[in-house]
Every structure is written in C-alpha cells, then in structure tokens.
Amino acid sequence: MRTPALLAMLASLVAPAAGIAADSLMQAAQAQFKPIPAQPPALPGNPASPARVELGKMLFFDPRLSASHTISCNSCHNVGLAGVDVAEKSIGHKWQKGGRNSPTVFNAVFNTAQFWDGRAKDLEEQAGGPMVNPIEMASPKEHVTEQLRGIPGYVAAFKAAFPGEASPVTLANAQKAIAVFEATLITPNAPFDRYLKGDAAALNANQTAGLKLFMDKGCAACHNGINVGGGRYAPFGIVEKPGAELLPADDKGRFAVTKTAGDEYVFKVPTLRNIELTAPYFHTGRSWDLRQAVGVMASSQLGLPVTDDEARKIVAFLEALTGDQPKIVYPVLPPSVATTPRPQP
Amino acid sequence: MRTPALLAMLASLVAPAAGIAADSLMQAAQAQFKPIPAQPPALPGNPASPARVELGKMLFFDPRLSASHTISCNSCHNVGLAGVDVAEKSIGHKWQKGGRNSPTVFNAVFNTAQFWDGRAKDLEEQAGGPMVNPIEMASPKEHVTEQLRGIPGYVAAFKAAFPGEASPVTLANAQKAIAVFEATLITPNAPFDRYLKGDAAALNANQTAGLKLFMDKGCAACHNGINVGGGRYAPFGIVEKPGAELLPADDKGRFAVTKTAGDEYVFKVPTLRNIELTAPYFHTGRSWDLRQAVGVMASSQLGLPVTDDEARKIVAFLEALTGDQPKIVYPVLPPSVATTPRPQP
User: Fold this and answer.
1) Predicted TM-score (pTM) of this structure
2) Nearest to A331 among B63, B80, B290 (CB)
3) CA distance A27 to A345
C-alpha cells in the first residue's frame, strides 16, 4: 500500500539523470560526487592532536573495553578487512548475534549519520553505542571508565590527549578519541577519485560504461556525494519489497528512531566505497554477491531490471570505488596492573 | 608423597648459585642468560622470505581461519598486549573457555617446545593446533584449506611465499608461514639485555639486587637461557603443592603428552620475558599479581620464603625483562569473494 507522498518521493529518487552523453559524463559525475581527500577531515569541537589520535587507536583496538575483555571495535570493524567483519551479523558478548550487518568504519566520517538507522549523529556518538550494548561489548557504562582509570598507561594517555582537563578519563572523552582515530580511516585515491579529479583514463571502458549506467538508471539519486551513499535515508523496497530474507518484517529501520510511519523500513543509504571488499551486503548481510546485490537494488529501488551485461558493468564501476586502505601500526596497549578491573564472567 | 628421584631432582633444581659476589654478578648472569638478538632467528627448513613473513602475518590476523570467522591467532595472542589476552582462560568458539592460560607468542620462538605441556615441538607445529581445536578456532582441517583456496588473494600470496610448489595452499604451508611471522615477534633491548651485553647501569639498584636474589635463591635454575625460562620442564609444587586453585587436580600437565608417572603436574617453565605485561600468571591464569606469583614460586618450587622486600626487588628485576615491543603494520587481508566459503553457524 503506497501513499501518494511515498510515490512522490519515489519519483524524485529514481528520476534518472537522463541523456548523459559520454563526453559530458565526467562533468555530470563531478556534479554528483566528490573525491575522498588525502587528509582526514577535522571534527567540529574535537581537534585531532597526535596524542588524541593515538589514544583513539589504542581504544579502538583494546578488547578490555568489553565486559569479557575479548571484543574490541576492531573485532567487527576490522581494519584489515576494509572496516567490516565479513559476516552477516557480528558475534558479540556470550556469542550473541547483532541485529544488523556491521557497516564499514572506513570513510564513515563522511556519512550524514551513523548506524543503519542513523541513530547516532556522528562518530563520537556512535562510539558510545557498541561498548555498552549488552549484545555487543556489553560493558556497563561505569565499567568502561573504571577499566580505563585502572590502567595507569591510559590515565597518562588521556591526560596527553585532553590537556588541561582535571579529570580527563571519561567515557565521553574515550568516544571523542575513538572518533578522531576513526576519522583517519579514509581510503583516498580510488580509480573513481582519480577520474573525478580529471583523469578519464583512471576508469577502464567497462567501468566508464558502469558509471554511465549507475547515473542513467538512477542509482546515483541515492548513492551520491563523497561517499557514493551515506548522505540520506531511503525506504528499502521503494518499488518492490524484497523478500523477507533481505527485509524481515520485524526490523523497521529508522522507524524505531523517529516513530514516524513514513520511516518504516527506511534505512540510511550505505556508502558504496570499497564495496567489493565489504560483503555481505544490506542491513541483513544476506547477500554475498555484489552482482546479485546490484540486481536486488535495481528491482526493489528502481523497478528497472538490469541485464547481466549491465550488472557486470555496474559492478566494474563499483570496483573502481576501492581506495588505498589505511596503513595502521598496531598500537602497543598500556598494560593491566594488579589492581586493574578484570574481565567480567 | 615424594619419591627419592623427585627429591634428587628437586635438589638439583633449587641448588642456589651460592655466594655470587656483587662484582661477579654480571659474569654469573652472562653464564646463565643470553640477550634477545636484534634480528629474528632462522627456522630450520622454513626460510623467511619477505613474502612468507607477510603471508604469515595475514594469516595470524585473519579471523576467517576460524569456523565462525571471528577468532584469529591475534585474538588470544594479541600483539598489542605483549602477545597474550589478559584473561585467565581464552574465550573460543561459541564462548567456550580454553583449558589453560594463553602463553605469550612473543619470543616463543626461543622456547624449547610450545604449549604449557610442550606437546608441539615448535611454532610450526603449534600453529596447527588452535585453528582446528574445537574449543578454540574450531575449523575442521579441510575448512582451513578450502577457506584459503576460496580467497584469490591468498592463492597468490601462497604462490609467492612458496615458489615452485605446484599446490602451495595447504594447512602445512599456512603453519610454516605463521611460524616465520611469529619468529619476528621478539622483544630485544630490554634493560636486562643491555646489562647482559655489559652495561651495568642498565639495571638500577633494586633490579640488580633482584637479579642477585633471582640467582641466589635458585629461580634461575629453571628460569634461565635466552628466554629466562622456556627451556625445560618442571613439576609445579616441587617443594609444596599450591592450592587447587593454582594447581587443579584434573590438569596433569605434561603427563597427558608422555603418559609417564614422573610427568604428573609437570609443565613447561614459562618465559619471564615481558612478564609484567602478561598477567594473569600460571597455567591456570589465576594469579593477577606479579609479586604474589613470585611468592607462590618461592614457596612451591624453592621452599624458601621471600620477604616483602625481596619480592619487591625480584619484581623490579622482572620488570627489567620488558623489551622493545614489535612494531607491526596491520595487514590488508585479501578480500572474500562471492564463492569464498562463509562462516559456519
């Protein structure tokens, strides 16, 4: 049962950028997308000193932020696996499964909001979620600060990262530090970035054809901007609801955040950057095949069937979104001492 | 009930290096210990090419070697936490707990054998254990090879690491590659290493006094050599059996390997290198306090009570065993593709 409002939105979403000629394709792309910068963006109110970035990296990798001391941010947002965990749902505290597929942390700083339902406005807010979520890292809120205060090396690191604060070891500051580290996890220099900067040869013929299809068919109506997605929300199944496997009835997406009927089954449009590295796909993580995922999107969001050849070309374009993976030196974590709180059973 | 043979062994173990004068302490130490070299040692029959070390590093960090795709070697031998997981027992597949405390992988290449009971003769043999152990990574043997063969980047990486082999993607080669990477995880340049190389000022007064106590009281009878341990086996509780919390009756240690009555409650003497970073202690992981652990050793192994002051000095010496932690760039892992085997439920 579609409402007129939804239909109007649908029309605005899928209106293809009709008639892009090959010679103006680059200009059209430059109008819709932006390259990833070489340097991490600044976060408002959270300046990225080297000490703060290093602290954030330590926290990102530290399993002692979880109740069991076995799960870190990196467990589900593995920096060696393009910021994901290559699983449908992540395994959390006591082997519980998360509710949705773990989105990549790479380039997440460029998203309009965080989580599939956008319930956190930025990385800083997001970072507070999994630590205290009982099915993820499951730390009681006080545990995180007690833990950090119980590790002398962290007390020193927080002082260096938040100079002038009387009592810098707080969950809020941990979130800030994690956010500035995560903001460094960007993947510049993808072939598509070089193309956007004027190098037409950065995309091969298939990738160029794929880009044209991506824009002509309307994919770029949602997947645009610097992150080729991540900038807005959209109902999953605008044209045709996918099956319950991909869109289970009990997860109404953004509706849980806004309690607005129009937000039922609405999700944040995910970034497509590094998409070839971040299977499985969709909020359910039920699609392991990028070509199949393209087909699902075409039918459910655009109502436009794609031929095998078109899907192949679109996938070729999507592969051109793989950028330089960040080079990360594993942090030496400050050691626990005899009085440090221990893992919780 | 102690047998005469055990008593004789005990006598040989605890005979203190009586009468070491302060001025000859360095020579006495140089006779019993060796510094960690700056470069990783070569492994017999397993040459460490850059390609093989890099492959080993990827495998060490890859959770896809576990059935669930969530547990990697680094989960329990965390390179940011001195090669351990700061837990009594590690959490494995489906939240099962391991049987013994995870020993550090750092400097493990210098141990005489691997595991607490020495059941693997070297790192290569050890690396095959946890991957297929049903309470650890829980991969069926075939799964490991199927998984690796299903990831194109690994096929290429194995070819580069094992040139000239017709079918290089095997579990045996994975173990070889992991072993050469692990052999790089050494921690040279500890204060005690500099002392052994002739710099008397590398140890402060307390540490020097601690070293003297360590040798005079007989600790060095077992904890000697390059790893200050790791070179032999010893019964836990030679003089006085510790309580069941530290020495539970159902874990007979090396007896399970050799089926020899004399090996009941015998364990490999652990390395003391980086010991301040690798709490909790003992095969049970039940002691979180290094000073307490020193006291347990003194009473159970030596029958010599130590005063608080002596324990403090011995701990100061043990802290001089902390070396330079290895600098590791997190590997970019080869991506899964649509046909790659998926996590097992």
Assistant:
1) 0.93
2) B80
3) 58
